Every structure is written in C-alpha cells, then in structure tokens.
Amino acid sequence: MAAANPVRRSFALPKLEAAGARFEALGDFQIAVSYRNAADEMATAKRMGLADLSPLPRVGFKGAGTCNWLQSRRLKIPEAPNRAAPQTDGALALRLAREELLLLGGLAEGAPDPGDLCNRWQVARTKPRGYPLPRQETHAWFLVSGEAADSMLAKLCGVDLRPAKFANLTVAQTSLARVNGVICRQDLGATLVYHLLADSASACYLWDCLLDAMTEFQGGPVGLTAVRALPAT
Amino acid sequence: MKIMTCPLNGPRNISEFHCAGEAVLQPDPRDLSDADWADHLFLANNSLGVVREWWCHTPSSYWFIAERHTGSDEILKTYPANEFFRERVDFDAREEGA
Asked: In this predicted model, what pLDDT tens digit does every residue of A92-105 receive, in sequence order?
C-alpha cells in the first residue's frame, strides 16, 4: 500500500535529486522511478545503468539453525556460502556464510516483503532458528546493469567479476571503492546485472564513485521502471 | 598487492584483512598463578618463526586462523578456526573460599 506522504527517503537522496529523479511512493518509502524519457532510460539500463533500490525491502538471518528454519519456511537455500538462489516469489536469497542469509525483496510490483519472515520468526517455536538481522537500515542497495558493468566494477573492486569468471548467482563479499560491500550477480533477461550492498552511511559517496567510474562507458542513473523492464529484454 | 586466501571467500587483497594476534589455546585458569594468567592475557610471545594467528576478513566479518612466518611475512596456510579449536572449553567457577 502506498503511503500518501512517504516518510522514509533513500540514503542517497541528495544525489538522486541532483540527477533529476522522479519519485513515487513505495510503502512508506519514496523510490526513484525514472530520470528521463522511458526509451532513453531503457537504452542506458542496457548499456550501463545505476539504480538505487535502497527503498526495496530486505532482511537477513544469521546463527545456528538459520538454514533449517528458513528451509522449513519453503525458502530455497543456496547450496554453498557466497552463492545466491532466486525464490519463487521473486526474492533473492544470498548465502553469506554457512548459517547467514540475506534476502532481497523481489523487483516486480507487489512482490512480497521478505521482512514478514521476522513475524514468523517471532512466533516460531523451533530452536535454534538463528536470529533476524535488520538489513533495511544498515545497507544501501544499488543495482548496476549493462554489458560493460564488469569492466566498470573492475576499476573499483579487486575481485574478478568478469562474467566468464564470476558466474550468475555468485556472491562476493569484498571491498568496493574502499567500502566494505556485498556484490551479487543476477542477470535480468539478457542484461548483465550486479546488486551492490554497502554501508548505508556511505551511500552518497558510493553513488558518486559509481557514476564517476561509469562516465567512460556513457553510463548513468536509471529508475525502478527501467530495472523492472529488464527481465523482459 | 599482497594476496591472502580467506577460507570462506577465497583469495583477496591483504587490505581486506586485519590481524588480531596470536591464536593460543586458553590454559585452565585454575591451574595458573596470577602472574601466569596475566602473562596469558596481556603478553604476546612475539616469536620469530611460523606463528598461528587470528585473522578477520573485514567485509564478511569472517574469523579464521592463519599460519605466518614472522621473519619473511609469508602466509603459509589459512583455515577455519574450528580446525584449531576443536572442542568447546567450559570451566567451572571455583567455589568461594575453596
């Protein structure tokens, strides 16, 4: 349900406003849906786009019993740490350690909030079942798309993210522009896509670093509308 | 850039890690004098040769053990902490006046 007056804003709001973002309400958040005309933005998303998905829901679980309990909630657990698994409801589960998961909410309109699992966790009786980690406020969530995304990220990150070396649905926990972050590749349609999660307090800094690194590839900011259209391309 | 291999995340730049000192098994405090206990808590061995150390991969907060030669600074081996600390150690509190 969209709030009439969103009370929560993106961690990178000043940067989004400066880039000319148009916002829409998403729950009690406001999210950047577009910057330019749709066709132009779609071309940017396929060439090299940067989207701020921080207002989308996400949650983490950690500790002994986490995987078993989430499996009992019908989640598909990635087979090994640093791998990711898409869920039937569109969410993406990132396994950060043997007993630590990060759940990113689906990109599609009306995708369920993985944070609802916290309510289930509260009333569950299984022991041990790990404990919830509130990731909505700790991590900014950016998405980088486009055929040269790996070349751009190579300027900021020491891990080899080339598609031939870094398979789809692989996770890297590493340093990105000297900020600690989580990188996960999840191709959307035919487009190479990386999710980036990093300290929310560094969101504006990271946004600038990414846009700067994108300049030589004619990259630019894209809104949620273009990102949602990527799987069909 | 020097490369270190994290048991969870694989080879990474050394700048992604920090060292937290020697990994030693904790002696049973009931068998130690106060001076020996203070030695265990506060004094480092600082020996020359291959040492076993606690290291942390900062972006993932993963703690593990590394074997490093303090002379050449060469990292010889890294492995999960449960390969060194194989069992949980519990100590009963000594009864008052015992």
From this structure: 999 999 999 999 99
> Which token pair is B23?
């990994």
B interface test, pick of A96, A157, A171, A174 with most B CB neighbours within 10 Å: A174
Which residue segment(s) compose the domain that A65 sits in?
58-133
Q: By C-alpha distance, which of B68, B1, B37, B13 is closest to A174?
A: B13
**Cβ within 8 Å, pair B16-A175:** yes
Shortest alpha-carbon distance between residue A175 and chain B (Å): 7
Please report, for the domain that includes residue A228, its CATH number: 3.30.1360.120
Q: Which residues pair with B79 in a beta bridge?
A: B65
Q: Are A159 and B12 a contacting pair at CB < 8 A? A: yes
Q: What are the tens digits of pLDDT across the range B35-58?
A: 999 999 999 989 999 999 999 999
CATH number, domain of B77, equals 3.30.2270.10
Chain B CB contacts of A96 under 8 Å are 60
CA B78 to chain centre: 11
Three-class DSSP category at A155: coil
List chain A residues with CB under 8 Å of B16: 158, 174-175
**Residues in chain B, total:** 98
Domain annotation covers residue A3 = no
Looking at this predicted complex, what is its ipTM? 0.87
